[in-house]
Design a protein that fits this description.
This protein is an alpha+beta fold. Helix content is 35%, strand content 19%. The chain has 22 helices and 31 strands.
């Protein structure tokens, strides 16, 4: 997987000077050929002919239309505006033409399929101007389309230029990109992709859909977006690595490598390919700073029976990290050499174990091409049964499940992180209540900055675990709302605020949501909040057999909402990494039946039921839970029975509770929860004002019961 270092420059800026850009873009494409996958046809023009053709292109006034997809079809607005074509699209189409493709797909992904990507891989954002975190762009010679989901429809409408069509993903009548290509592109069309940012399974499905429609998928060595971006492309990140200490990891790198080798032997494979960045960080007990919010570094891992290699920018490896890896026998190699070593292993007849959803088609096809080109001696490699060895063994990597089941050291570190977080958030809520009492207003954007400020005062804090969601009133009903300085609503003495935030500490990762009223809540708000709290308590106190899938538990969190004809449109729980990514799998709690991963002791899950009223308000209560073995009087079927213990130690606002809806057991749980929060967090609080606030927030509730009859 070769990386063109000439592209690693500064952050993208506005594109101007179309002539020189088009000319350079087209000529660069002529000088390179694809290295993996189906080869793109060679351009029919000579370099001089293409340069002449590109030189003839000029930005001149033309008729363009602002377009968007509706819920059932694609509508074209009547208004037409005279303006210059988008120079980025003009240049990209010239690059596509030179590469011999009729369409090109630009996903949001990096080569490791990360949730957050470094700026140097934000190609979709660069070419479309859409800054949302989720979306796919598709450019043909006469169309430019952007798919995103309902969280970002309004944002995309505001950010996309008039040459772009917004495709409202998930809405009736709006096809997915593969379906659109199959239906709209002429037979014989060639659809280009960058194989480094599409997984094997994704590319396979796309190829199948295109071939069924008489078109072809073509992998390109040079991404046309990079050709347009050129010298303005941001540099690859260079944050230094740090050792994740043994007191927090609980297991040495050598032990983890031995575990992988045992799994290789079980799977009859020779090399495990590790591509997801959190899996690489977990395996080698290192942390980095290449991505926002996730303490990881750009890197790969290859583990065989006789070698473990970590592929990373050598400049990030400090002396301490080098010694740490040397002690475990890990060989550090440049990031770019992973593909070459995969080729060498494949050519030698080795079997590479890959997760088809998490490894790029570029790496896989590089290995397959090397195996196909290997000499007769290598091709005759046999297994014990004298069958020809496979080059690629597809299967789920053993790392995600091992990473999901935390050891006692990891759990202790996570608890410590949450106790520090408890101090930070008690300080924040105390401050906000005081501000409201004074009649002081802050906007949502400023609230996010204050949350980060209070966390930064805690030892071991490095960064947020995701961008704070601070939604006042109707903004609280936008599930993944992120305030900007322009969009932020005021938060004042009568506000209902939903605040979802988290922190990365040296010992662990936090994620918590509290909904807080600064004035007097309405009866409807209290009713909805109480039902959300009842669901939260119901899931926390659930007892269930080991290996129960998360979708079985989801109804515990929704029951009380359902009784009132209410619900929420998101999952109830996701896995969380230990000083790693705030979202991790494979476990989850959701109404979706597709994830059958069994829940076992040591897993961490969020518990975050909610209720959202469009244009009104949003409510969510979220704690992180750790799975523990339950003490039951019986063990039917010789099974272990499990329950949850909470990691989050932050008060739940009592003002919003309608206690007439609560059972005695639910009130007892709330009092016990607050008693533990006070016991564990108050000794860490040094500000007497905050301690007084915390004491009141954790004071027990007495509910009088009136018996009639």
């Amino acid at each position: 997987l070769r990386v063109d270092r000439s592209l690693q420059c500064v952050r993208a800026s506005a594109v101007t000077g179309t002539d020189w850009m088009l000319r350079a873009s087209a000529l660069r494409l002529l000088q390179r050929t694809p290295i993996v996958g189906k080869r793109a046809p060679q351009p029919t023009q000579t370099p001089s002919q293409l340069a002449t053709a590109v030189a003839s292109l000029r930005v001149r006034p033309g008729t363009v239309r602002a377009r968007s997809s509706a819920a059932s079809d694609v509508k074209v607005e009547d208004s037409e505006t005279k303006m210059a074509p988008d120079p980025k699209l003009v240049a990209m189409r010239a690059a596509m033409k030179a590469a011999g493709v009729d369409a090109f797909i630009v996903p949001s992904q990096d080569p490791h399929f990360s949730e957050y990507v470094p700026t140097c891989f934000e190609r979709r954002r660069f070419i479309s101007g859409f800054t949302g975190s989720a979306g796919t762009a598709l450019v043909t010679h006469d169309e430019a389309l952007l798919w995103t989901d309902g969280r970002y429809f309004l944002q995309a409408e505001q950010e996309l230029g008039p040459e772009w069509t917004l495709m409202r993903g998930g809405q009736p009548g709006v096809p997915e990109p593969s379906k659109w290509l199959a239906d709209k592109m002429a037979k014989g069309s060639k659809v280009g992709v960058d194989p480094a940012v599409h997984s094997l399974s994704e590319a396979r499905a796309l190829r199948s859909a295109l071939e069924a429609a008489g078109s072809a998928l073509v992998t390109l060595d040079v991404n046309p977006v990079d050709t347009v971006w050129d010298a303005d492309r941001p540099a690859f990140p260079t944050a230094l690595l740090r050792v994740h200490k043994a007191e927090f990891s609980g297991k040495s790198v050598a032990d983890k490598v031995d575990f992988i080798r045992a799994k290789l032997d079980e799977n009859k494979s020779d090399v495990l390919v590790v591509s997801p960045l959190d899996e690489v960080a977990w395996l080698f007990n290192v942390r980095g700073g290449d991505l926002d919010y996730n303490p990881v570094t750009l890197g790969y891992g290859l583990v065989s029976m006789d070698e473990a290699c970590f592929y990373v920018d050598i400049g990030k490896v400090t002396n301490e990290v080098r010694a740490h890896l040397d002690e475990a026998g890990v060989v550090v190699k440049p990031y770019d050499e992973c593909a070459g070593d995969m080729r060498a292993a494949a050519a030698a007849g080795k079997t590479l174990w890959i997760d088809a959803d998490k490894v790029s088609v570029a790496l896989v096809e590089a290995a397959e091409e090397a195996a196909a080109a290997a000499g007769p001696a290598e091709k005759k490699a046999k297994t014990e049964n004298d069958d020809a060895r496979k080059t690629i063994e597809e299967g789920v990597s053993p790392i995600p499940l091992a990473k999901a089941v935390k050891n006692e050291a990891e759990l202790a570190g996570m608890l410590e992180a949450h106790l520090r977080d408890g101090v930070a958030m008690a300080s924040f809520w105390c401050w906000l209540d005081e501000q409201a009492a004074r009649g002081k207003e802050w906007d949502e954007y400023e609230i996010g900055e204050w949350v980060s400020k209070f966390r930064a005062e805690q030892p071991g804090f490095s960064e947020e675990s995701f961008a704070t969601i601070a939604g006042e009133g109707p903004h609280g009903a936008i599930i993944h709302y992120r305030a900007s300085a322009e969009s932020a609503r005021k938060v004042g003495p009568d506000s209902l605020l939903l605040c979802d935030s988290g922190g990365q500490y040296d010992c662990g990762t936090t994620d918590v949501t509290r909904t807080h009223h600064l004035g007097t809540p309405t009866d409807h708000q209290k009713n909805a909040y109480t039902r959300v709290l009842q669901g939260h308590i119901g899931l926390t106190t659930a007892v269930f057999p080991q290996d129960t899938s998360g979708f079985v538990l989801d109804a515990f969190a929704r029951r009380h909402l359902w009784e009132a004809g209410l619900d929420y449109r998101h999952g109830t729980g996701h896995g969380v990494g230990a000083a790693l990514n705030v979202h991790e799998g494979p476990q989850s709690i959701s109404p979706r039946f597709g994830n059958t991963t069994g829940i076992v002791p040591g897993m961490i899950l969020s518990n975050e039921p909610g209720y959202y009223e469009d244009g009104g308000f949003g409510i969510r209560i979220e704690n992180l839970l750790v799975v523990r073995e339950a003490k039951t009087s019986h063990n039917f079927g010789n099974k272990k029975y499990l329950t949850f213990d909470y990691l989050t130690h932050i008060p739940i606002q009592k003002k919003l509770i309608d206690f007439s809806l609560m059972s005695g057991a639910e009130v007892a749980w709330l009092n016990q929860y607050h008693a533990v929060v006070w016991e564990k967090v108050s000794p860490r609080v040094t500000d007497e004002k905050v301690k007084a606030w915390l004491k009141e927030a954790c004071a027990p509730v007495t509910v009088k019961t009136v018996v009639i009859g």
